[in-house]
Write a structure and sequence with these properties.
The chain has 6 domains: about 120 residues, 3-Layer(aba) Sandwich (GIY-YIG endonuclease), CATH 3.40.1440; about 60 residues; about 180 residues, Rossmann fold (3-Layer(aba) Sandwich), CATH 3.40.50; about 190 residues, Rossmann fold, CATH 3.40.50.300; about 60 residues, no CATH class; about 90 residues, Ribosomal protein S10 (Alpha-Beta Plaits). About 30% of the residues lie in helices and about 20% in strands. The protein is α/β, with parallel strands linked by helices and about 750 residues long. Strands 10-11-9-12-13-8-14 form a 7-stranded parallel sheet, with helices on both faces. Helix 4 crosses helix 5, helix 15 packs parallel to helix 16 and helix 16 packs antiparallel against helix 17. The relative contact order is 0.08. A hairpin with a 2-residue loop joins strand 3 and strand 4. Bound molecules: adenosine-5'-diphosphate and zinc ion (ZN) (2 copies). The site of one zinc ion has 9 residues, from loops.
Length: about 750
């Protein structure tokens, strides 16, 4: 994302509309800009821009937001005369959206070529927040007892319980007083108790900014001071916090949080990759600020979402830690943003509005006028280039905290040291595991493949078991006794005979997944306590927390995991990390395959030797001379990234040039291809712009949809949004064919 694009509009004071005037209301619907409505008499001068309102919409009611007039969006179609406009129905009792948020919505819409309505939908994702908040009836003592009230020991017990002044619900009072609910109600009827209907949404406890963090080292202090200074000063300022794993980045950005929270009513947002939102992180936060933060991600239940959304809007929620969608919460007074693990590929949203949360966090900070810290041990190439160009201030942490040092790295050349047939661990790695276990220390084995085996093949006829609706193999999950498609979720039992030639006992599992590795490990190290950590085995945050506790507490010896184990955990007794297939991410590589594999392996390696005991990392590779493996061995990530940058610069690849992917899909292959050809025919011909395709996507079919891709490649100065919008609008596809535009694509599948 280019910095020029980040320019702000001119601030205009919001003005509420008079009765009878026209207001624009943006509704959370795709394909819609703001629509015109009339201000009814009763709402004169109350409908300020940003107000959340209910309006009539083709016979039903919809929630929308009064949209500022000076923005790019304009209602489609002709302007209706005032008297034909429907009136706004009511104003919802939540604080209006600030201009920082309405502008952010406009910005994301313009950048991603999504409708404003589709972006707004992400801000209004909690319908329950706009209804009445349920209340529960509580009772408290009346200020004076009514004259002549008959007292009994039971009644006296109730009054005694409530003597502290705290309102309580009838069952609680009854149980504390040892009486029946009826006694409580009787007292209320007699006028001795007053009933209070209290919202079920309790306010969030406020963080304590007087607690002190740990004593920071020299370089940590320097980084923390820079961030604190920027937060104190206010105003947009982006930082790259580039520190090796275990160097204390979290402690450093906590200082920024602490500074931001000093001021009354300010709010902070910490974005993390969804799976990095660990119990360990939350415990550290609680230790530092005395409360748990508001947590926001897809697993949070409806009631809690309503409570959180409203509290963010009123400013009552001071700290939000969340996955990418937290960017679209209606903060009242956002004072600081951190994006932790900023390089993480999961920040790119691949459905609906295709945006990159790291980039958009910088835009959000700019609109809110606050500092933003992008933290990582392996900053993305895009961020590094922004830092090189002086757009981001770089804060470096070069040392691990305390006596911990970075682990020793070694490659195992699998051509010279192959594992025995049907096994996946080389003799060297097996020996290292033995020694580590003998020393009473822990081992982590990393293999980024869920299930037992990625492919099931018939030995007789060569048939491969595929998903019925995707061009993908089904993955065997032996723990669950199923075959599963990792693209659409389709599941079926493992067949006894080959579906094609019907041979019995002819199906073989090919290649390893973590479950198969588990089989090998438990066979080789039958005494060791071994566990598998994947998104299949750890369905809930509490399950994850339990396993993490077991590892940290030394109740497990070997952990086998997918990328879920790479994120941010701190296990002091873990000293050996074995990367079972260091080449895995490099195969079939796209633009960022090398960079991503490097980042992932640095993160896994970073789990080893985080405390007093030094760590060791073994990388099993069939190509140890590959630059990624070499960069890990030499520890010279800078040189590796410099080579990556040079290569991208030479070919004008992002961020030195621009890419836009156009993905066409539909149930009929011929129709999809037809739209592709039509697009190719009217493709823009312009110097510095190349277009390839339509070509069948590498995943030609997902969920029964046939897929073709086109890729637009442009020199950096070209305004691709305008170009692509004009281009795509020239083709009117059949309604069965979907055209998806992906600005800055990360997936090329
Ligand atoms: P990173 O986020 O860079 O991987 P962390 O912030 O998780 O690093 O720090 C690694 C470990 O070192 C954590 O357990 C953290 O509490 C500890 N730590 C870091 N800095 C300090 C410090 N100055 N004093 C005490 N403990 C520290
Ligand atoms: Zn067969
Ligand atoms: Zn499928």
């Amino acid at each position: 994302m280019s910095q020029q694009a980040l320019n702000l509009g001119i601030e205009e004071p919001p003005q509420a509309e008079e009765a009878g005037a026209r207001v624009q209301v943006l509704l959370p619907l795709p394909l819609a800009g703001p629509l015109d409505y009339r201000v009814p008499d009763g709402m004169a001068n109350q409908l300020e821009p940003g107000a959340v309102v209910e309006v009539p919409l083709s016979g039903r009611k919809a929630i929308g937001v009064v949209w500022p007039k000076n923005t790019s969006g304009k209602a489609s179609g002709k302007t209706l005369p005032l008297k034909k406009l429907k009136p706004v129905e009511r104003i919802i009792d939540v604080p209006p959206f600030g201009t920082d948020l309405t502008r952010f919505v406009d910005w994301v819409s313009a950048y991603t070529l999504s409708s404003q309505g589709a972006v707004l939908r992400m801000c209004l994702s909690v319908p329950a927040a706009f209804g009445d908040v349920p209340v529960k009836r509580h009772y408290a003592c009346a200020s004076v007892l009514p004259d002549g009230i008959r007292m009994t020991p039971a009644r006296e017990a109730v009054l005694k319980v409530l003597a502290d002044g705290k309102p309580r619900m009838a069952p609680e009072i009854a149980s504390l007083a040892g009486v029946s609910d009826g006694v409580v109600r009787g007292l209320a009827d007699a006028g001795a108790l007053v009933a209070l209907d209290i919202s079920v949404d309790q306010p969030y406890p406020q963080p304590d900014t007087n607690l002190k963090g740990p004593k920071l080292s020299g370089e940590q202090t320097e980084a923390a001071e820079a961030i604190r200074g920027a937060v104190w000063e206010g105003g947009f300022k982006p930082f790259l916090l580039d520190g090796i794993t275990g160097s204390g980045k979290t402690e450093v950005y906590f200082e920024g949080l602490a500074e931001a929270l000093q001021e009354k009513g300010t709010q902070v947002l910490v974005l993390v990759p969804e799976i990095a939102l660990t119990s360990q992180w939350l415990e550290r936060f609680e230790a530092r600020f005395g409360v748990t933060p508001v947590v926001w991600h897809s697993e949070v239940g409806q009631a809690e979402r309503r409570r959180a959304w409203r509290a963010v809007a009123t400013g009552d929620a001071r700290v939000v830690v969340g996955a990418r969608s937290a960017l679209f919460l209606p903060f009242k007074k956002l004072a600081f943003i951190t994006v932790d693990e900023e390089h993480d590929p999961s920040f790119k949203q691949e459905e609906g509005v295709l945006y990159h949360a790291r980039d958009m966090a910088v835009v959000r900070a700019m609109q809110a006028g606050c500092p933003v810290v992008l933290a990582s041990a392996t900053p993305s190439l895009e961020t590094q280039v922004n830092a090189d160009e002086g757009k981001y201030q770089v804060l470096k942490l070069r040392e691990r905290h305390g006596v911990a040092v970075l682990p020793e790295m070694r490659a195992v050349d699998m051509r010279a040291e192959p594992p025995e047939a049907g096994t996946w661990l080389s003799p060297i790695l097996v020996r290292e595991i033995e020694e580590t276990l003998a020393a009473g220390e822990q081992v982590m084995l990393f293999l980024n493949r869920r299930g037992y085996a990625p492919l099931t093949l018939c030995r007789t006829c060569g048939h491969r078991i595929e998903c019925p609706s995707c061009s993908a193999w089904l993955v065997e999950h032996r723990f669950r006794q199923e075959l599963q498609c990792h693209h659409c979720g389709h599941m079926e039992p493992i067949p006894e005979a080959c579906p094609t030639c019907e041979s019995k006992e002819s199906l073989v599992a090919c290649g390893p997944g973590v479950e198969r590795l588990f089989e090998e490990v438990t066979r080789r190290f039958s005494e060791a306590r071994t566990s598998v950590m994947t998104s299949d085995t750890m369905m809930s945050p509490s399950q994850t927390a339990a396993v993490v506790k077991e590892i940290a507490g030394g109740h497990l010896d070997i952990v086998i995991g997918t990328q879920i184990v790479t994120k941010g955990y701190h296990f002091p007794n873990l000293t050996l990390v074995g990367v079972v297939d260091a080449d895995l991410g490099l195969r079939g590589g796209d633009l960022r395959a090398g960079e991503r594999t490097y980042q992932q392996l640095v993160q896994v390696a970073g789990r080893a030797g985080r405390a007093e005991k030094p760590g060791k990392v073994l990388l099993q590779s069939y190509e140890p001379e590959h630059p990624v493996v070499q960069a890990l061995l030499t520890g010279d990530g800078d040189a590796f990234m410099a080579a990556e940058k040079a290569a991208r610069a030479q070919y004008h690849m992002p961020p030195y040039g621009k890419l836009v992917a156009i993905i066409l899909s539909g149930p009929e292959m011929a129709e999809v291809l037809e739209v592709g050809r039509a697009l190719a025919k009217v493709a823009p011909v312009e110097h510095g712009v190349d277009i390839v395709g339509p070509a069948p996507a590498p995943m030609v079919r997902i969920r029964g949809q046939h897929r073709f891709r086109m890729l637009l490649h442009a020199k950096k100065h070209i305004k691709v949004q305008q170009l692509v919008r004009n281009w795509v609008l020239r083709v009117k596809p059949k309604s069965s064919v979907r055209i998806k535009v992906d600005i800055d694509p990360y997936s090329f599948m």
